Amino acid sequence: MNIIPLPLKVKEKSGSVALGRESAVSGDFSQTIELTKDFLSDKDGGKDAQIIFCSDAALADEEYFIDCQNGKVQIKAAKEVGAFYALATIKQIYSNGEIPCVEINDKPNYAYRGFSLDCARHFWKVDKLKQIIDVMAHIKMNEFHWHLTDDQGWRAEIKKYPLLTQKGTARKRTPLSPKAFMGSGDLGYDEEEYGRGLFYSQDEMREIVDYAKARHIEVVPEIDMPGHMVAAIACYPQLSCAEEPTEVSTRWGVLDNICCCGKDDVYNFAKDVIDELCEIFTGRFFHIGGDEVPKTRWKKCPKCQAKIKELGLADENALQGYFNNEIAAYLRSKGKRTVGWNEMLDAKDIMDTDIVAQWWVRHSLGNKNEFDWMAKGGQCILSMYTYVYMDHPYNVRPLKKTYNFSAQTLGINDESKILGM
Predict the structure, then answer these.
(1) What is the pLDDT of residue 385?
(2) Is the pTM of this model over 0.70?
(3) Catalytic residue among 67, 118, 150, 316
(4) Looking at 118, 143, 224, 292, which residue is catalytic?
(5) Residue 47, Cβ neighbours under 10 Å: how many?
(6) Of 13, 41, 185, 218, which residue is least crowded by CB atoms under 10 Å?
């Protein structure tokens, strides 16, 4: 039986139950009942069938049980979300006006089941985002990780800093070849300006949050800091160490023009952005990036060096760790939990263990940082790019490789500190 993800238990029986607009839908979980009626509204038949939703407190919050036989589909769940996932399964097994007689019991292995979309480098329209969210709901994903800012473009309206969307959205050209991608050649560019005016208004972001929430999906905004901030620095050069004029980046890769964590203004800027976005994003998590932060400018910056000395920090990695903790504490005061890419674990010894490390790259020798982090009590989200990044060619990233990715792939035997994928 083709169900994605594969349920915990499936017991197939003989026969089937015809379902359509004439089927009776009743019971608990009013929201899912209405969604079920909507699903069947354009389907003929099903006159003698019943779909009954029942509340069962013995089940886990996202768990469901389906028993389909003798013209009746009984669905048990503890919460609305479990009933919603049962409906998602019914949609997958519905074919030619009927579903097979079957018993299915399922619940997720992980609390965090995410899909990440980079809208900073390449803008996606609101309608397309909704289509993606619908697909996520179909396969029971529950976290939409929305990458909104990077060196190549800023896509979130921040009213206190209007230049971010007046100027920070547009780059002069876009690399198409590997050499252009890394900024090492002049061949292989699309020479058309890209991105001017392409951003999400605060109303549009609220619209996406509401649309996702109706499908039991949280939206996790990512505002990359203190690295990958060239688009913001192009608008407000005082955020950088040198304060020199620059432009929104036309190359990909790792850039050393990062925010100056020796300046109070940088912390204030980050908190101002967080203030506005936390009024919009109602989920539990807020992603601050934290990856690919070369410290070359910090090593030469008098303000960064003064901050390191003032705080008694060991080095520049510790300065980023201090920055992470300050932002995490501010987010915590707003009811949010901080997520960041696993490179930030270079400062694991001083970082708050409430911060979630998203493990996307093999950064430390033998993955020591990540295993030490979990041993310390910190949690990880597994997103190893060699397995789950879908913008790579199929011969490099076949679907089977992605589908078979697990904690064991990374040598993790104790999954108690794995929040999800």
Answers:
(1) 95
(2) yes
(3) 150
(4) 292
(5) 12
(6) 41
Residue in the block written with tokens 């980046």: 249
Closest CA relative to residue 120, chosen from 169, 159, 163: 169
Cα 371 from Cα 377, distance rounded (Å): 10
- pLDDT of 1: 87
Distance from C-alpha of 264 to C-alpha of 269, rounded to nearest angstrom: 9
Residues counted in the chain: 421
What sign for the dihedral angle of Cα 221, 227, 230, 236? positive
| Structure-block tokens of residue 82 | 């479990």
| DSSP output for 95-161 | BTTEEEEEEEEE--S-SB-EEEEE-SSS---HHHHHHHHHHHHHTT--EEEEE-EETTEE-B--TT-
Q: Residue 274's closest CA among 326, 212, 216?
A: 326
Parallel, antiparallel, or unpaired for β 24-27 and 50-55? parallel
Q: 80-93 vs 126-138: helix axis angle to the nearest 10?
A: 90
DSSP 289-321: ---S---HHHHH-HHHHHHHHHHT-SSHHHHHH
| Distance, CA of 21 to CA of 85 (rounded, Å) | 20
Report yes or no: 390 and 365 within 8 Å, Cβ to Cβ. Answer: no
Report yes or no: 156 and 149 within 8 Å, Cβ to Cβ. Answer: yes
Instruction: Look up 122 and say whether it is catalytic.
Output: no
DSSP state of 365: G
193 carries an active-site annotation: no
User: What separation in angstroms does the CA of 295 have from each of 228, 299, 319, 326, 363?
Assistant: 13, 6, 10, 19, 16
Establish whether 292 is a catalytic residue.
Answer: yes
Low-confidence ranges of the chain (pLDDT < 70): 184-186
The catalytic residue among 228, 287, 343, 370 is 228
pLDDT per position as a tens digit, 162-176 = 999 999 999 999 988
Residue 355 CB neighbours (<10 A): 25
Distance in Å from the first CA to the final CA of the chain = 24
